[in-house]
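Lab notebook, bench 4. Still working through the backlog of constructs that have no structural model yet. Next entry is a single chain of 127 residues. Request: give me the structure tokens for it.
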Amino acid sequence: MAFTHTFNKGWTNGGAPINKAVDVSAGSEINIEESVPTGNLTIGFGVDISALKGLYILASGNLTLRTNDNDSPDDELAIHGNQPLVWSGTDGYFSNPFGADIATLIAENPGAGNVTLQIRALVDPTP
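Model written out:
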């Protein structure tokens, strides 16, 4: 079974929109939706980075995502509230936002109140 994620990329100035959908397919997907309380939440997210084909991350508030170790992470990403991080794997404009294989994500919520974290990852199970 193949999964296809469609990444919509668009622009408008209010009158002349430009839109392009990019489809990326692979044999597996990882979908995460977690409520991150103030402080840190560890989330299982086993991904071989060479197998990651597409990624969509959206949080309802500001978060910092660290991979594998909170004190000495392999990667650290600042996720801005309500601004999706989108990587379609084949767009050629920037590389994978993660540089090392991932076992766990540590989501740090610096604010007061829960933040909803949504992750949609497309993964090739046979890299």
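Notes after review: The chain is about 0% helix and 55% strand. The mean pLDDT is 94. Flag for follow-up if needed.
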